[in-house]
Amino acid sequence: MKKTFLSFAALMAASTVSLAQINKAFKIDYAIVVTNANSGTEQEAPVSLYEAYVSNDKIKVVSSADGQESIFLAKKNEDKSTILYPSLSKYIVHEDDATSFSIKLVPGQTKNIAGYPCKLAQIELPNIEDIEGNSTLSIWYSEKLPVIYWESFDIFKKIPGGVLQVTTPLGVDIVAQSVANSQLNDNDFIVPEDYDQVDSIYGEEQEGEENNQMAENLYLFEDSTSGLMGLQDDTQQIVVPAQYHYITPFVGEVSVVQFKNEKYGAINLTGKTVIPFQYDYLSYDDNSEQFLFGTNEKYGILDKAGKVLIPANYDMISFINGGYAVFQQNEKYGILNQAGKIVVPASYSFISENNGTHFISVENDKYSLVDIKTNKILTPAYDFISITEEPNLFLSSKDGKYGYLNGQGKIAIPFIYSGATSFSDGLASVTKEGSDDVILINTKGEEVELDAAAEAATEES
């Protein structure tokens, strides 16, 4: 019954909203780095804070600043942006203001950050009480990346490339930890119907509570003496003592935290330690119930109980999906099975995603479909390829047209559409050139009426 309801809901949505497309983008992971302002050396381990996705015309930035997850959304051709607050089911529409700072582009200054050549821009800050002497903001940017900005960083609009490092005179810097090819889905820019628009999330009734909410009836608080964080309920009874530098919002029943020893671990809703505080980096995926952990700048995978599934031997690794994980070694990408055995050597410039049988490789902005077991490239270079819920159908684009490939890399549904979505519950939405009408098709490429599609979904359940 649940599947029937979800299928029908998806069909109704497809008939009433514009077609969502998947677009190529860059993913940039930023961290806060505390440095010695005099020597420039790091004083503490980087704290991941911003997960950004940027294309030539759109920006999405997921932020965990102040313990409150927010999602910044902007279309570059519009003079406004939207900020979503998932834990509050609220959003704010922000009208963009012109910035008055002047930017100086510094010739002859270059360095490499996250694999990208960067140039230097500088901004002279106005007089600020906490800053003595140096009042220059140094911004390192790459012209090979699209312009990116987000809430409180509108100044980045004037930078002629993607910002990868911001050095402040306060010794608190923002530094890109990695840059990878990724995707942006038009659906990401649709505000959920159950969200309420507000002018601010810091209204009197919310202050001190909802803006610090980590889970149902759990709120962040700071100890005024130690500056450490803990959790309390809505009656201000302490549930988790203030002993953490950083607490992330709960994902399911798990929160990744940074203990006072600067190491990362995880706690449950009662504050019980479920992953010991021994890692330099830790993140959790509720769908796979896995942790990605880092130690000595190498990364691996834990299960939900903390058992090592894949040792931390890799420069980066993905969560296990379909029995396989993507890993990075010496700036090349390969595939591991869930036992940690390399099944595809690290010989690819980038692997964007995988399922249980195939992976998508990206070389010079061109996409190829590759069989995991044989490591055989099945397709010529396409402008875009993405995995769908149908394991044998892959959304693809070439020369501005969309279609679908099968598991052998052959055309399963012709490239005749101006836009298309991935398959879900056996259906996809497409549009044709010169028309805004959304058409539903089945896995054979046949057009399906809404009533017939709903009936088919009911029979399947």
TrEMBL record:
InterPro entries, sorted? WG_beta_rep
* Keyword line: Signal
- Pfam families according to UniProt: WG_beta_rep
Query: Any keyword Transcription?
Result: no
Q: Which residues cross the membrane?
A: none
Top-rank taxon, per record: Bacteria
Statement: the UniProt record of this protein carries the keyword Signal: yes
**Record's signal peptide:** 1-20
Q: What is this protein called?
A: GLPGLI family protein
UniProt source species: Sphingobacterium puteale
